[in-house]
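Collaborator request, handled under Task 6.
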Amino acid sequence: MKIRASASSRPVRAEFSFGRFRLSEGGLFHGDVPVNLSPSELAALRLLVAHHGQIVTPAQLRKALWGDARVAAGSVSKCVDSLRARLAPEECIETVYKRGYRLACAVSAVPAPAPARVAAAPGARNRLVILPFAAGLGVPEYLGPAAAEETSIRLQHAIPSVISVVAQDSVFALAARGRSALEIGRILEADLAFTGSLRALPQNYRLRAEMFSVHDGGQLWVEDLLVDKNQAAGIESELVQRIASRLHGEGLSIAAAAAGDDDGPRFREAYELYRSAHYDWQSFQRHPMQDAFERLLRALEVDPRLMAARVDFVNLCFAQALYGYMPAATAAEFLRRAADVVVPAGFLREGNGSSADLDPHAEAVLPALGWIAFHVDRNLAAALRAFALSAHLPHDRWTTCARIMFALSRHRFSEAIEILRAALRLDPCSPWLQARLGWALHLAGDTAGSLCQIETAYAHFPDTIDVSLHAAVILAYSGEAARAVQIAQQLCQHDSSSDLAAGVHAYALACAGRAGEAREVLQRLEWLSRERFVLNPFAAAVHVALGEPEAALGQLRVANEARCPWFFQMLADPCLNALHDQAKFKELETILPSMEAAVHDHPGK
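Structure tokens returned to the collaborator:
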């Protein structure tokens, strides 16, 4: 079966905006973040918006929500009350005594044209969401998400290109929140949704794969795949070929950037190590990340040709430095050692040669190398070269993360915000992008925008590390220290080994006037630093909040010497505004301009 969309395959709907909300075919959005509504809440909202300014009676609502079905007394009022809570803090819905309800805020309707991909010429690609596969008893926990992710990657590198795979971060984040395949497809405006469940048999894994049309919810096809347990990597290869056959009617070749299809025993061992490690380190917790580090090293020893493991190892080193589980200099050493296979030592530093001289896989590691060149080597010219050579790479978590960190650290806040907004158009439900946008607005001095952004992100993704970290800092700075303390405490309970979480907790406590408790947290981190590496980029902000400027300046000097990945952003953090008149702070502020001037004076370097 070939599946192609046409201009008449779906109705053209209007998109409405009211307050900070947007109601479209895909659901309700607050900014770029979807608002979780039940089907009855969404139906009620659509009716109120369609009759905005007019009274909608309980009978009308009951008919729209439940038809002729018998429902309990008070069901309408409970639904409206719940909807009001979802729309808080804006007061949108009025109760008109003994008559009904009215949407009182201004509503604007804009016809939403059919997306370009639908009205495009024959051969235009459909958009596909691939959910993490459910894993049954006896199936390794990592296998379902890993198989779905690798299938996405291979489809993206398929030749010919037959489908556009929607950003994985958003899909996985919504799936973790309990959204169904069709709900996710509609939120992300996809055409097709693909899901599956893995079951362990004595000698095989059985994958039941299903594809749905998002437009009408119809099941397009379903079938079972059997794969030998000793050749589990074959799941992705088989899935890609079957999806391609259904969509395009022919087979595909997979570009070399994918994991590869070598069926030798060394490849299979390395590939399983890579897949399990990749799943574990995405938790962003200390011990799983360190275990994954060892497994990826082992995978590269077993089969150095496995580029997926090499790129993953590079990104893991980058992530370990950002989250404070490895000193930046140590991460740089491991990262360079892994990348040297595809980017020769000195290539970026010396500025000789072009991208044509590099291994075809080099582009994927260039953003992380650029970040190392800037933060660890303080070589802005080499960093600029790395980011220029990789500027054409599409959005993925670590490419985009490196670009954002580079722009923020250079205090190019408008550039970072533009990168973030562009990424969010592709990946609108990515928690870390939502959180990092709040942080970028905070560094840019937009306190109100930062607070609004992080409130929205936290309302939808309260269980994610990035959102909680940035929410605690921004709320504490914005005068909501009590909430910040609560969020930071929950984060510390979730991951007691996170120094970043402890540092944020200390800052929130200091802002809340709980100086003794804040100092206790700092002392505990100081004690830990005698046994292992500790990263606490928020220590300076804690001391400022406690009225200890000299101690804050001391923490900044330590961060500079340790090449802390957050150092340059710390200098721009409004939490440290009280230090701006200090001579020692002004001295630290000269580091970045001197790096920029060196590139300006010697542009050829």
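The cover message to the collaborator said: "The chain is about 55% helix and 10% strand. The mean pLDDT is 85. Please let us know whether this matches your experimental observations."
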